[in-house]
Amino acid sequence: MQGQQVYSRLGSFGGAAGTPSPPPPPSPVRGAGRRTPGKAGAARGSQEAAAAAASAGAAGWGAAARRAARALLAALLRRQAVFLFAPLLYVAAMLLYMGSLPLDVVPRIITRSAPGSVYRSPQLYARLRPDMDADNSTDALATVWRQTYKGGVWRPCIHNLTNSLPESNGYIYVEANGGLNQQRTSICNAVAIAGFLNATLIIPNFHFHSIWKDPSKFRDIYDEEHFVKRLQNDVRVVNKAPDFIMERFGHNLSNVFNFKIKAWSSSTYYKDVVLPKLVEERFIRISPFANRLSFDAPPVVQRLRCLVNFEALKFSNPIATLSETLISRMRERSAESNGKYIAVHLRFEEDMVAFSCCVYDGGDEEKKEMDVAREIGWRGKFTRRGKVIRPGIIRMNGKCPLTPLEVGLMLRGMGFNNKTAIYLASGKIYKSEKTMAPLLEMFPLLQTKETLASDEELAPFKNFSSRMAALDYSVCTYSEVFVTTQGGNFPHFLMGHRRYLYGGHSKTIKPDKRRLAILFDNPRIGWKSLKRHLLNMRAHSDAKGVEMKRPNESIYTFPCPDCMCRLNKTTHSKPIHTR
Protein backbone atom coordinates (compact mmCIF):
# COMPACT_ATOMS: atom_id res chain seq x y z
CA MET A 1 0.00 0.00 0.00
CA GLN A 2 2.85 2.29 0.83
CA GLY A 3 4.48 1.65 -2.54
CA GLN A 4 1.23 2.25 -4.38
CA GLN A 5 0.80 5.58 -2.60
CA VAL A 6 4.31 6.67 -3.56
CA TYR A 7 3.80 5.74 -7.20
CA SER A 8 0.40 7.46 -7.09
CA ARG A 9 1.88 10.64 -5.80
CA LEU A 10 4.60 10.71 -8.41
CA GLY A 11 2.00 10.09 -11.12
CA SER A 12 -0.22 12.94 -10.06
CA PHE A 13 2.72 15.33 -9.86
CA GLY A 14 3.73 14.75 -13.50
CA GLY A 15 0.41 14.32 -15.40
CA ALA A 16 -3.30 14.61 -15.32
CA ALA A 17 -5.19 13.03 -12.55
CA GLY A 18 -6.51 9.51 -13.29
CA THR A 19 -3.79 8.52 -15.93
CA PRO A 20 -1.50 5.36 -15.30
CA SER A 21 1.72 5.98 -13.41
CA PRO A 22 4.98 5.68 -15.44
CA PRO A 23 7.46 2.85 -14.61
CA PRO A 24 10.43 3.52 -12.34
CA PRO A 25 13.51 5.10 -13.94
CA PRO A 26 16.13 2.68 -15.31
CA SER A 27 19.37 1.90 -13.46
CA PRO A 28 22.08 4.44 -14.26
CA VAL A 29 24.58 1.64 -14.90
CA ARG A 30 22.36 -0.40 -17.26
CA GLY A 31 21.07 2.66 -19.02
CA ALA A 32 24.42 4.28 -19.74
CA GLY A 33 24.72 2.58 -23.12
CA ARG A 34 21.14 3.13 -24.23
CA ARG A 35 20.86 6.85 -24.27
CA THR A 36 19.24 7.21 -27.67
CA PRO A 37 16.96 4.51 -28.94
CA GLY A 38 17.20 3.87 -32.69
CA LYS A 39 17.94 1.15 -35.27
CA ALA A 40 20.63 -0.53 -33.14
CA GLY A 41 18.19 -0.94 -30.31
CA ALA A 42 15.59 -2.41 -32.60
CA ALA A 43 18.12 -4.94 -33.98
CA ARG A 44 19.14 -5.99 -30.53
CA GLY A 45 15.53 -6.50 -29.65
CA SER A 46 14.93 -8.76 -32.63
CA GLN A 47 18.09 -10.84 -31.81
CA GLU A 48 16.93 -11.37 -28.27
CA ALA A 49 13.54 -12.44 -29.48
CA ALA A 50 15.12 -14.91 -31.91
CA ALA A 51 17.36 -16.33 -29.20
CA ALA A 52 14.40 -16.76 -26.92
CA ALA A 53 12.50 -18.56 -29.64
CA ALA A 54 15.48 -20.82 -30.38
CA SER A 55 15.85 -21.67 -26.70
CA ALA A 56 12.21 -22.52 -26.53
CA GLY A 57 12.52 -24.72 -29.64
CA ALA A 58 15.64 -26.48 -28.28
CA ALA A 59 13.90 -27.08 -25.01
CA GLY A 60 11.01 -28.58 -26.92
CA TRP A 61 13.27 -30.86 -28.95
CA GLY A 62 15.19 -31.88 -25.82
CA ALA A 63 11.99 -32.74 -24.04
CA ALA A 64 10.82 -34.74 -27.06
CA ALA A 65 14.19 -36.63 -27.22
CA ARG A 66 13.99 -37.46 -23.54
CA ARG A 67 10.44 -38.72 -23.92
CA ALA A 68 11.49 -40.88 -26.89
CA ALA A 69 14.49 -42.31 -24.98
CA ARG A 70 12.31 -43.14 -22.00
CA ALA A 71 9.77 -44.83 -24.25
CA LEU A 72 12.52 -46.86 -26.00
CA LEU A 73 14.10 -47.90 -22.69
CA ALA A 74 10.71 -48.93 -21.33
CA ALA A 75 10.10 -51.04 -24.43
CA LEU A 76 13.53 -52.67 -24.13
CA LEU A 77 13.00 -53.43 -20.50
CA ARG A 78 9.70 -55.08 -21.34
CA ARG A 79 11.49 -57.08 -24.05
CA GLN A 80 14.86 -57.99 -22.50
CA ALA A 81 15.67 -60.46 -25.28
CA VAL A 82 16.33 -57.46 -27.54
CA PHE A 83 19.63 -56.95 -25.70
CA LEU A 84 20.87 -60.23 -27.13
CA PHE A 85 20.65 -58.80 -30.63
CA ALA A 86 22.41 -55.54 -29.84
CA PRO A 87 25.94 -56.92 -30.53
CA LEU A 88 24.75 -58.41 -33.80
CA LEU A 89 23.28 -55.11 -34.85
CA TYR A 90 26.55 -53.37 -33.97
CA VAL A 91 28.66 -55.83 -35.96
CA ALA A 92 26.30 -55.60 -38.92
CA ALA A 93 26.52 -51.82 -38.86
CA MET A 94 30.32 -51.95 -38.74
CA LEU A 95 30.45 -54.38 -41.68
CA LEU A 96 28.16 -52.15 -43.71
CA TYR A 97 30.37 -49.19 -42.87
CA MET A 98 33.60 -50.94 -43.77
CA GLY A 99 32.09 -52.26 -46.97
CA SER A 100 31.28 -48.73 -48.04
CA LEU A 101 34.95 -47.65 -47.83
CA PRO A 102 37.33 -47.98 -50.81
CA LEU A 103 40.19 -50.47 -50.28
CA ASP A 104 42.90 -47.85 -50.65
CA VAL A 105 41.53 -46.03 -47.61
CA VAL A 106 41.67 -49.03 -45.21
CA PRO A 107 44.77 -48.70 -42.99
CA ARG A 108 47.46 -51.38 -43.33
CA ILE A 109 48.28 -53.23 -40.10
CA ILE A 110 52.00 -53.86 -39.63
CA THR A 111 52.85 -56.74 -37.28
CA ARG A 112 56.27 -57.11 -35.66
CA SER A 113 57.49 -60.42 -34.31
CA ALA A 114 58.27 -60.63 -30.61
CA PRO A 115 61.98 -60.33 -29.67
CA GLY A 116 63.68 -63.70 -29.79
CA SER A 117 60.96 -65.44 -31.81
CA VAL A 118 62.72 -65.48 -35.20
CA TYR A 119 66.00 -67.11 -36.26
CA ARG A 120 68.15 -64.20 -37.48
CA SER A 121 71.57 -65.43 -36.37
CA PRO A 122 73.02 -65.60 -39.94
CA GLN A 123 72.28 -61.88 -40.45
CA LEU A 124 73.83 -61.06 -37.08
CA TYR A 125 76.96 -63.05 -37.91
CA ALA A 126 77.35 -61.34 -41.29
CA ARG A 127 77.04 -57.91 -39.66
CA LEU A 128 79.35 -58.54 -36.68
CA ARG A 129 82.00 -60.68 -38.33
CA PRO A 130 84.44 -57.82 -39.15
CA ASP A 131 84.42 -56.63 -35.52
CA MET A 132 84.68 -60.21 -34.28
CA ASP A 133 87.70 -60.96 -36.46
CA ALA A 134 89.38 -57.77 -35.29
CA ASP A 135 88.84 -58.77 -31.64
CA ASN A 136 90.92 -61.95 -31.40
CA SER A 137 93.39 -61.21 -28.63
CA THR A 138 91.69 -62.75 -25.57
CA ASP A 139 92.39 -66.28 -24.37
CA ALA A 140 89.46 -67.37 -22.21
CA LEU A 141 90.94 -70.82 -21.55
CA ALA A 142 93.50 -69.24 -19.25
CA THR A 143 90.92 -67.57 -17.00
CA VAL A 144 87.66 -69.41 -17.58
CA TRP A 145 87.19 -70.91 -14.08
CA ARG A 146 87.54 -68.70 -11.00
CA GLN A 147 84.98 -70.13 -8.56
CA THR A 148 85.79 -72.86 -6.06
CA TYR A 149 83.56 -75.51 -4.53
CA LYS A 150 81.29 -73.89 -1.95
CA GLY A 151 81.09 -76.87 0.37
CA GLY A 152 84.66 -76.64 1.61
CA VAL A 153 87.16 -79.36 0.71
CA TRP A 154 85.72 -81.71 -1.88
CA ARG A 155 85.40 -85.27 -0.54
CA PRO A 156 83.97 -87.88 -2.93
CA CYS A 157 82.23 -90.00 -0.30
CA ILE A 158 82.26 -93.49 -1.79
CA HIS A 159 83.76 -95.72 0.85
CA ASN A 160 84.24 -99.46 0.59
CA LEU A 161 82.29 -101.93 2.69
CA THR A 162 84.01 -104.96 4.18
CA ASN A 163 81.09 -106.73 5.83
CA SER A 164 79.72 -109.85 4.18
CA LEU A 165 76.36 -109.81 2.41
CA PRO A 166 73.34 -111.54 4.01
CA GLU A 167 71.45 -114.27 2.19
CA SER A 168 69.75 -113.00 -0.95
CA ASN A 169 65.99 -112.46 -1.12
CA GLY A 170 65.86 -113.44 -4.78
CA TYR A 171 66.88 -112.44 -8.32
CA ILE A 172 66.01 -109.26 -10.22
CA TYR A 173 66.17 -108.97 -14.01
CA VAL A 174 65.75 -105.55 -15.70
CA GLU A 175 65.63 -104.33 -19.27
CA ALA A 176 67.48 -101.05 -19.81
CA ASN A 177 65.92 -99.06 -22.63
CA GLY A 178 66.97 -95.88 -24.44
CA GLY A 179 70.36 -94.59 -25.53
CA LEU A 180 73.72 -94.82 -23.81
CA ASN A 181 73.02 -92.58 -20.82
CA GLN A 182 69.41 -93.60 -20.32
CA GLN A 183 70.70 -97.18 -20.12
CA ARG A 184 73.31 -95.94 -17.65
CA THR A 185 70.51 -94.57 -15.46
CA SER A 186 68.77 -97.94 -15.55
CA ILE A 187 71.96 -99.80 -14.56
CA CYS A 188 72.65 -97.49 -11.59
CA ASN A 189 69.07 -97.67 -10.37
CA ALA A 190 68.95 -101.44 -10.78
CA VAL A 191 72.04 -101.92 -8.63
CA ALA A 192 70.67 -99.49 -6.02
CA ILE A 193 67.33 -101.31 -5.81
CA ALA A 194 68.99 -104.74 -5.72
CA GLY A 195 71.18 -103.59 -2.84
CA PHE A 196 68.26 -101.95 -1.02
CA LEU A 197 66.11 -105.11 -1.30
CA ASN A 198 69.07 -107.42 -0.64
CA ALA A 199 68.53 -109.08 -4.02
CA THR A 200 70.88 -110.59 -6.59
CA LEU A 201 71.03 -108.57 -9.80
CA ILE A 202 71.33 -110.25 -13.17
CA ILE A 203 73.45 -108.23 -15.63
CA PRO A 204 70.92 -105.81 -17.23
CA ASN A 205 69.74 -106.55 -20.72
CA PHE A 206 69.85 -103.69 -23.25
CA HIS A 207 66.56 -103.31 -25.06
CA PHE A 208 66.88 -102.76 -28.81
CA HIS A 209 65.16 -99.51 -29.84
CA SER A 210 64.00 -98.50 -33.31
CA ILE A 211 65.47 -94.99 -32.92
CA TRP A 212 68.97 -95.83 -31.66
CA LYS A 213 69.13 -99.12 -33.58
CA ASP A 214 72.03 -100.40 -31.51
CA PRO A 215 72.11 -104.16 -30.73
CA SER A 216 75.05 -103.79 -28.32
CA LYS A 217 75.04 -105.83 -25.12
CA PHE A 218 76.34 -104.84 -21.69
CA ARG A 219 79.79 -106.32 -22.29
CA ASP A 220 80.14 -104.40 -25.59
CA ILE A 221 79.84 -101.06 -23.77
CA TYR A 222 81.16 -101.73 -20.27
CA ASP A 223 83.84 -103.81 -18.61
CA GLU A 224 81.65 -106.57 -17.16
CA GLU A 225 84.36 -108.17 -15.06
CA HIS A 226 85.29 -104.88 -13.38
CA PHE A 227 81.59 -104.15 -12.79
CA VAL A 228 80.99 -107.40 -10.89
CA LYS A 229 84.23 -107.17 -8.91
CA ARG A 230 83.76 -103.53 -7.85
CA LEU A 231 80.31 -104.31 -6.44
CA GLN A 232 81.13 -107.63 -4.77
CA ASN A 233 80.97 -106.21 -1.22
CA ASP A 234 77.74 -104.30 -1.88
CA VAL A 235 75.50 -106.19 -4.31
CA ARG A 236 75.61 -109.67 -5.80
CA VAL A 237 75.74 -109.51 -9.60
CA VAL A 238 75.55 -112.59 -11.86
CA ASN A 239 75.40 -113.18 -15.62
CA LYS A 240 72.19 -115.20 -15.57
CA ALA A 241 69.70 -116.82 -13.21
CA PRO A 242 70.68 -120.31 -12.01
CA ASP A 243 69.05 -123.34 -13.64
CA PHE A 244 67.12 -124.40 -10.53
CA ILE A 245 65.36 -121.01 -10.62
CA MET A 246 64.71 -121.07 -14.37
CA GLU A 247 63.23 -124.58 -14.15
CA ARG A 248 60.30 -123.15 -12.21
CA PHE A 249 59.49 -120.94 -15.20
CA GLY A 250 60.15 -123.47 -17.95
CA HIS A 251 63.42 -121.74 -18.83
CA ASN A 252 61.34 -118.95 -20.39
CA LEU A 253 61.75 -115.35 -19.18
CA SER A 254 58.30 -114.41 -20.42
CA ASN A 255 56.85 -116.66 -17.69
CA VAL A 256 58.59 -114.65 -14.99
CA PHE A 257 56.35 -112.14 -13.19
CA ASN A 258 56.94 -108.69 -14.73
CA PHE A 259 56.41 -105.52 -12.70
CA LYS A 260 55.05 -102.48 -14.55
CA ILE A 261 56.40 -99.79 -12.27
CA LYS A 262 55.47 -96.12 -12.60
CA ALA A 263 58.21 -93.61 -13.37
CA TRP A 264 59.97 -92.02 -10.38
CA SER A 265 58.59 -94.52 -7.87
CA SER A 266 59.89 -94.16 -4.31
CA SER A 267 62.12 -96.62 -2.49
CA THR A 268 59.20 -97.17 -0.10
CA TYR A 269 57.15 -98.55 -3.00
CA TYR A 270 59.87 -101.08 -3.75
CA LYS A 271 60.02 -102.12 -0.11
CA ASP A 272 56.24 -102.40 0.37
CA VAL A 273 55.15 -103.74 -3.03
CA VAL A 274 58.10 -105.25 -4.91
CA LEU A 275 59.91 -106.95 -2.03
CA PRO A 276 57.01 -109.23 -0.93
CA LYS A 277 56.61 -110.47 -4.52
CA LEU A 278 60.36 -110.98 -4.81
CA VAL A 279 60.41 -113.10 -1.66
CA GLU A 280 57.42 -115.08 -2.89
CA GLU A 281 58.59 -115.70 -6.46
CA ARG A 282 62.36 -115.66 -5.87
CA PHE A 283 62.70 -114.18 -9.37
CA ILE A 284 61.05 -111.05 -10.79
CA ARG A 285 61.40 -109.03 -13.95
CA ILE A 286 61.08 -105.22 -14.33
CA SER A 287 60.64 -103.96 -17.87
CA PRO A 288 61.02 -101.21 -18.89
CA PHE A 289 63.23 -99.82 -16.15
CA ALA A 290 64.36 -96.34 -17.28
CA ASN A 291 63.61 -93.64 -14.67
CA ARG A 292 61.72 -96.02 -12.40
CA LEU A 293 63.32 -94.77 -9.18
CA SER A 294 62.86 -91.35 -7.60
CA PHE A 295 65.84 -89.02 -7.21
CA ASP A 296 64.78 -88.48 -3.60
CA ALA A 297 66.01 -91.68 -1.94
CA PRO A 298 67.62 -92.74 1.35
CA PRO A 299 71.43 -92.46 1.63
CA VAL A 300 71.99 -96.21 1.22
CA VAL A 301 70.38 -96.00 -2.22
CA GLN A 302 72.20 -92.78 -3.16
CA ARG A 303 75.55 -94.26 -2.19
CA LEU A 304 75.00 -97.29 -4.41
CA ARG A 305 73.96 -95.07 -7.32
CA CYS A 306 77.18 -93.09 -7.04
CA LEU A 307 79.31 -96.18 -6.55
CA VAL A 308 77.98 -97.66 -9.79
CA ASN A 309 78.10 -94.51 -11.87
CA PHE A 310 81.52 -93.21 -10.89
CA GLU A 311 83.41 -96.38 -9.97
CA ALA A 312 81.82 -99.59 -11.25
CA LEU A 313 80.88 -98.53 -14.79
CA LYS A 314 84.06 -98.46 -16.86
CA PHE A 315 83.94 -98.59 -20.62
CA SER A 316 85.00 -101.81 -22.29
CA ASN A 317 88.61 -102.19 -23.37
CA PRO A 318 88.06 -101.38 -27.10
CA ILE A 319 86.19 -98.16 -26.23
CA ALA A 320 88.66 -97.15 -23.51
CA THR A 321 91.68 -97.74 -25.76
CA LEU A 322 90.41 -95.64 -28.66
CA SER A 323 89.17 -92.96 -26.24
CA GLU A 324 92.66 -92.55 -24.78
CA THR A 325 94.05 -92.22 -28.31
CA LEU A 326 91.51 -89.51 -29.20
CA ILE A 327 92.22 -87.58 -25.98
CA SER A 328 95.95 -87.72 -26.63
CA ARG A 329 95.53 -86.46 -30.19
CA MET A 330 93.19 -83.72 -29.03
CA ARG A 331 95.77 -82.48 -26.55
CA GLU A 332 98.45 -82.48 -29.25
CA ARG A 333 96.25 -80.25 -31.42
CA SER A 334 95.79 -77.81 -28.54
CA ALA A 335 99.48 -77.33 -27.80
CA GLU A 336 99.16 -73.53 -27.99
CA SER A 337 96.86 -73.65 -24.95
CA ASN A 338 98.97 -76.15 -22.99
CA GLY A 339 96.88 -79.12 -24.07
CA LYS A 340 93.58 -77.58 -22.96
CA TYR A 341 90.58 -77.84 -25.24
CA ILE A 342 86.85 -77.18 -25.28
CA ALA A 343 84.32 -79.98 -25.75
CA VAL A 344 80.92 -79.03 -27.22
CA HIS A 345 77.93 -81.33 -27.11
CA LEU A 346 75.98 -80.20 -30.18
CA ARG A 347 72.43 -81.49 -30.68
CA PHE A 348 71.61 -80.44 -34.23
CA GLU A 349 70.84 -83.79 -35.80
CA GLU A 350 67.85 -84.05 -38.11
CA ASP A 351 65.67 -85.90 -35.59
CA MET A 352 66.48 -83.34 -32.90
CA VAL A 353 65.59 -80.41 -35.15
CA ALA A 354 62.39 -82.18 -36.23
CA PHE A 355 61.31 -83.00 -32.68
CA SER A 356 61.86 -79.40 -31.52
CA CYS A 357 59.40 -78.04 -34.14
CA CYS A 358 61.63 -74.96 -34.47
CA VAL A 359 61.94 -72.99 -37.71
CA TYR A 360 65.34 -71.99 -39.08
CA ASP A 361 66.35 -70.47 -42.42
CA GLY A 362 65.66 -73.39 -44.77
CA GLY A 363 62.27 -72.19 -46.02
CA ASP A 364 59.79 -74.55 -47.66
CA GLU A 365 62.42 -77.24 -48.25
CA GLU A 366 63.22 -77.36 -44.54
CA LYS A 367 59.53 -77.51 -43.63
CA LYS A 368 58.90 -80.47 -45.95
CA GLU A 369 61.93 -82.36 -44.65
CA MET A 370 60.97 -81.77 -41.01
CA ASP A 371 57.36 -82.83 -41.61
CA VAL A 372 58.57 -86.10 -43.13
CA ALA A 373 61.09 -86.69 -40.31
CA ARG A 374 58.43 -86.07 -37.64
CA GLU A 375 56.01 -88.48 -39.27
CA ILE A 376 58.66 -91.20 -39.56
CA GLY A 377 59.97 -90.83 -36.01
CA TRP A 378 56.78 -89.94 -34.12
CA ARG A 379 53.88 -91.02 -36.30
CA GLY A 380 50.86 -88.81 -35.66
CA LYS A 381 52.27 -87.14 -32.54
CA PHE A 382 52.56 -83.71 -34.14
CA THR A 383 49.56 -83.91 -36.48
CA ARG A 384 46.86 -85.10 -34.12
CA ARG A 385 43.69 -83.09 -33.87
CA GLY A 386 43.96 -80.01 -31.67
CA LYS A 387 47.77 -79.99 -31.69
CA VAL A 388 49.00 -76.40 -32.00
CA ILE A 389 52.69 -75.75 -32.71
CA ARG A 390 54.07 -72.24 -32.19
CA PRO A 391 57.73 -72.13 -33.30
CA GLY A 392 58.18 -68.52 -32.18
CA ILE A 393 57.09 -69.32 -28.62
CA ILE A 394 59.33 -72.39 -28.58
CA ARG A 395 62.34 -70.26 -29.57
CA MET A 396 61.54 -67.54 -27.03
CA ASN A 397 61.35 -70.20 -24.30
CA GLY A 398 64.88 -71.38 -25.13
CA LYS A 399 63.77 -74.79 -26.40
CA CYS A 400 65.29 -74.62 -29.88
CA PRO A 401 68.56 -76.51 -30.51
CA LEU A 402 71.46 -74.10 -31.05
CA THR A 403 72.86 -74.17 -34.57
CA PRO A 404 76.62 -74.57 -35.13
CA LEU A 405 76.70 -70.88 -36.11
CA GLU A 406 75.07 -69.85 -32.82
CA VAL A 407 77.51 -71.98 -30.82
CA GLY A 408 80.40 -70.26 -32.59
CA LEU A 409 78.98 -66.78 -31.94
CA MET A 410 78.44 -67.62 -28.29
CA LEU A 411 81.96 -68.98 -27.72
CA ARG A 412 83.65 -66.09 -29.52
CA GLY A 413 81.59 -63.68 -27.45
CA MET A 414 82.68 -65.50 -24.30
CA GLY A 415 86.31 -64.74 -25.11
CA PHE A 416 87.53 -67.91 -26.85
CA ASN A 417 89.63 -66.86 -29.84
CA ASN A 418 90.01 -68.62 -33.19
CA LYS A 419 93.10 -70.50 -31.98
CA THR A 420 91.07 -72.43 -29.42
CA ALA A 421 90.88 -76.17 -30.06
CA ILE A 422 87.35 -77.57 -29.97
CA TYR A 423 86.15 -81.15 -29.85
CA LEU A 424 82.63 -81.50 -31.25
CA ALA A 425 80.56 -84.35 -29.79
CA SER A 426 77.51 -85.01 -31.92
CA GLY A 427 75.71 -87.30 -34.29
CA LYS A 428 75.16 -86.53 -37.95
CA ILE A 429 74.60 -82.76 -38.18
CA TYR A 430 71.57 -81.64 -40.17
CA LYS A 431 72.74 -80.20 -43.53
CA SER A 432 76.30 -80.24 -42.19
CA GLU A 433 77.99 -78.71 -45.26
CA LYS A 434 75.90 -75.56 -44.92
CA THR A 435 75.43 -75.34 -41.15
CA MET A 436 78.99 -76.24 -40.11
CA ALA A 437 80.74 -73.73 -42.41
CA PRO A 438 80.37 -70.67 -40.10
CA LEU A 439 81.56 -72.61 -37.04
CA LEU A 440 84.66 -73.77 -38.91
CA GLU A 441 85.32 -70.18 -39.99
CA MET A 442 85.26 -69.05 -36.36
CA PHE A 443 87.18 -72.07 -35.00
CA PRO A 444 89.39 -73.67 -37.68
CA LEU A 445 90.98 -76.05 -35.11
CA LEU A 446 87.68 -77.87 -34.55
CA GLN A 447 87.90 -81.67 -34.40
CA THR A 448 85.51 -84.63 -34.21
CA LYS A 449 86.05 -88.33 -33.61
CA GLU A 450 85.84 -88.77 -37.39
CA THR A 451 88.71 -86.32 -37.98
CA LEU A 452 90.85 -87.57 -35.09
CA ALA A 453 90.55 -91.30 -35.89
CA SER A 454 91.08 -93.19 -39.11
CA ASP A 455 88.31 -95.15 -40.83
CA GLU A 456 89.97 -98.39 -39.74
CA GLU A 457 90.04 -97.29 -36.10
CA LEU A 458 86.36 -96.30 -36.17
CA ALA A 459 85.15 -99.35 -38.09
CA PRO A 460 84.25 -101.48 -35.00
CA PHE A 461 82.10 -98.59 -33.65
CA LYS A 462 80.67 -97.03 -36.80
CA ASN A 463 77.24 -98.69 -36.86
CA PHE A 464 76.68 -98.67 -33.09
CA SER A 465 75.29 -95.38 -31.75
CA SER A 466 75.95 -96.20 -28.07
CA ARG A 467 79.59 -97.09 -28.70
CA MET A 468 80.11 -93.88 -30.70
CA ALA A 469 78.45 -91.91 -27.88
CA ALA A 470 80.80 -93.59 -25.39
CA LEU A 471 83.80 -92.24 -27.35
CA ASP A 472 82.34 -88.73 -27.21
CA TYR A 473 81.62 -89.09 -23.49
CA SER A 474 85.24 -90.01 -22.73
CA VAL A 475 86.82 -87.17 -24.73
CA CYS A 476 84.39 -84.62 -23.24
CA THR A 477 85.12 -85.82 -19.70
CA TYR A 478 88.77 -84.72 -19.86
CA SER A 479 88.28 -81.36 -21.61
CA GLU A 480 89.06 -78.10 -19.83
CA VAL A 481 85.62 -76.71 -20.73
CA PHE A 482 82.47 -78.65 -21.51
CA VAL A 483 79.66 -76.79 -23.31
CA THR A 484 76.14 -78.19 -23.24
CA THR A 485 73.63 -76.80 -25.73
CA GLN A 486 70.41 -78.82 -25.36
CA GLY A 487 70.05 -80.72 -22.08
CA GLY A 488 69.34 -84.43 -21.88
CA ASN A 489 71.00 -87.36 -20.13
CA PHE A 490 74.42 -86.94 -21.79
CA PRO A 491 75.28 -83.50 -20.34
CA HIS A 492 73.71 -84.23 -16.94
CA PHE A 493 75.78 -87.35 -16.45
CA LEU A 494 78.87 -85.63 -17.77
CA MET A 495 78.47 -82.61 -15.49
CA GLY A 496 78.26 -84.93 -12.49
CA HIS A 497 81.24 -86.97 -13.64
CA ARG A 498 83.31 -83.80 -14.03
CA ARG A 499 82.27 -82.62 -10.56
CA TYR A 500 83.40 -85.97 -9.20
CA LEU A 501 86.80 -85.66 -10.95
CA TYR A 502 87.50 -81.92 -10.62
CA GLY A 503 87.02 -81.10 -6.94
CA GLY A 504 83.30 -80.35 -7.07
CA HIS A 505 83.37 -78.02 -10.12
CA SER A 506 81.54 -79.23 -13.23
CA LYS A 507 83.64 -76.94 -15.48
CA THR A 508 80.60 -76.64 -17.72
CA ILE A 509 79.12 -73.74 -19.69
CA LYS A 510 75.35 -74.03 -19.66
CA PRO A 511 74.03 -71.02 -21.59
CA ASP A 512 70.79 -69.19 -20.91
CA LYS A 513 69.07 -69.96 -24.21
CA ARG A 514 66.14 -67.61 -23.60
CA ARG A 515 68.57 -64.77 -23.28
CA LEU A 516 70.56 -65.97 -26.29
CA ALA A 517 67.41 -65.97 -28.43
CA ILE A 518 66.82 -62.29 -27.64
CA LEU A 519 70.47 -61.32 -28.13
CA PHE A 520 70.75 -63.09 -31.50
CA ASP A 521 67.47 -61.52 -32.68
CA ASN A 522 68.57 -57.96 -31.88
CA PRO A 523 69.23 -56.08 -35.16
CA ARG A 524 70.90 -53.16 -33.37
CA ILE A 525 73.30 -54.91 -30.99
CA GLY A 526 77.00 -54.30 -31.54
CA TRP A 527 79.89 -56.67 -31.00
CA LYS A 528 81.07 -55.05 -27.76
CA SER A 529 77.61 -55.12 -26.25
CA LEU A 530 77.04 -58.74 -27.31
CA LYS A 531 80.41 -59.77 -25.88
CA ARG A 532 79.65 -58.07 -22.55
CA HIS A 533 76.39 -60.04 -22.22
CA LEU A 534 78.07 -63.32 -23.14
CA LEU A 535 80.97 -62.81 -20.73
CA ASN A 536 78.41 -62.33 -17.94
CA MET A 537 76.72 -65.55 -19.04
CA ARG A 538 80.05 -67.39 -18.85
CA ALA A 539 80.67 -66.03 -15.35
CA HIS A 540 77.21 -67.21 -14.33
CA SER A 541 78.02 -70.74 -15.55
CA ASP A 542 81.21 -70.63 -13.49
CA ALA A 543 79.25 -69.74 -10.34
CA LYS A 544 76.57 -72.37 -11.03
CA GLY A 545 79.22 -75.04 -11.60
CA VAL A 546 80.12 -75.19 -7.92
CA GLU A 547 76.62 -75.28 -6.46
CA MET A 548 75.68 -78.04 -4.05
CA LYS A 549 72.81 -80.44 -4.54
CA ARG A 550 69.29 -79.15 -4.04
CA PRO A 551 66.31 -81.34 -3.02
CA ASN A 552 65.08 -83.72 -5.75
CA GLU A 553 68.13 -83.08 -7.93
CA SER A 554 69.81 -86.00 -9.66
CA ILE A 555 72.66 -87.58 -7.70
CA TYR A 556 74.27 -88.29 -11.08
CA THR A 557 74.58 -84.54 -11.71
CA PHE A 558 75.32 -83.49 -8.10
CA PRO A 559 77.47 -86.22 -6.46
CA CYS A 560 78.05 -84.12 -3.36
CA PRO A 561 79.45 -85.75 -0.20
CA ASP A 562 76.70 -84.66 2.20
CA CYS A 563 74.20 -86.75 0.24
CA MET A 564 76.22 -89.94 0.75
CA CYS A 565 78.06 -89.63 4.04
CA ARG A 566 75.08 -90.31 6.28
CA LEU A 567 75.02 -94.01 5.51
CA ASN A 568 75.02 -95.12 9.13
CA LYS A 569 72.82 -92.31 10.46
CA THR A 570 69.41 -93.23 9.03
CA THR A 571 66.80 -95.89 9.52
CA HIS A 572 67.61 -97.21 6.03
CA SER A 573 71.28 -97.75 6.76
CA LYS A 574 71.27 -101.45 5.92
CA PRO A 575 69.81 -103.57 3.13
CA ILE A 576 66.52 -105.29 3.87
CA HIS A 577 66.97 -108.84 5.09
CA THR A 578 63.89 -111.03 5.46
CA ARG A 579 65.41 -114.26 6.63
Automatic annotation (TrEMBL):
Keywords: Carbohydrate metabolism, Fucose metabolism, Glycosyltransferase, Membrane, Transferase, Transmembrane, Transmembrane helix. The keyword Mitochondrion does not apply. It comes from the Eukaryota. The chain crosses the membrane at residues 82-103. Residues 1-46 are annotated as: Disordered. One of its GO terms (molecular function) is glycosyltransferase activity. InterPro entries: FucosylTrfase_pln (IPR024709), GDP-Fuc_O-FucTrfase (IPR019378). Belongs to the glycosyltransferase GT106 family. This is O-fucosyltransferase family protein. One of its GO terms (biological process) is fucose metabolic process. The keyword Transferase applies. GO terms for cellular component: Golgi apparatus. It comes from Triticum aestivum. CDD domains: O-FucT_plant.
